[in-house]
Amino acid sequence: QKEVEQNSGPLSVPEGAIASLNCTYSDRGSQSFFWYRQYSGKSPELIMFIYSNGDKEDGRFTAQLNKASQYVSLLIRDSQPSDSATYLCAVDNFNKFYFGSGTKLNVKP
Amino acid sequence: DTAVSQTPKYLVTQMGNDKSIKCEQNLGHDTMYWYKQDSKKFLKIMFSYNNKELIINETVPNRFSPKSPDKAHLNLHINSLELGDSAVYFCASSPGTGRNSPLHFGNGTRLTVT
Hints:
By secondary structure, chain A is an all-beta fold. Chain A is built from no helices and 11 strands.
């Protein structure tokens, strides 16, 4: 079983819609949870992180964490074509970062 | 003023050769990593060093040898390259332990073994 699971997509949403990206993890001892965005041919860049149950908002992005269900999600409001990328979920367990295989998001104008 | 820089950006070489990738960070971070990203975009941790000491060594062939001369540098040497080593290798750093310690990635080195 993979440590971090994501739906590979592609997830297609129209411009202006809400994109919802999901991630599950297997290790209950995991401490921190990160969302990275990776454009084709580029390196992953940090969007935001969360470590407490509940929601955390940063601009158009909201991360949601449910440790009981071992579930992390990322909501992108007012999606823009420039948001089209692969979104990687990462889970930190004592400085060992495990990544999901990413969800490809396409935002259509 | 690049935060995490790695060289070279592209590396094309033949099977059996030995090659090195260099990484430097100027963020003052204590921990550095090497990750391998395959063609399916899966990022897999290879090694991690904290203040020049090896702390994570995943199941990686011993043809791969990391070296950290100081906490700002982490190099990766690969012996006897194989076709399956073709991938993008990312160096990353983080402040260290604690919850607010995300990874900061370099721009990657695309290794192609022919």
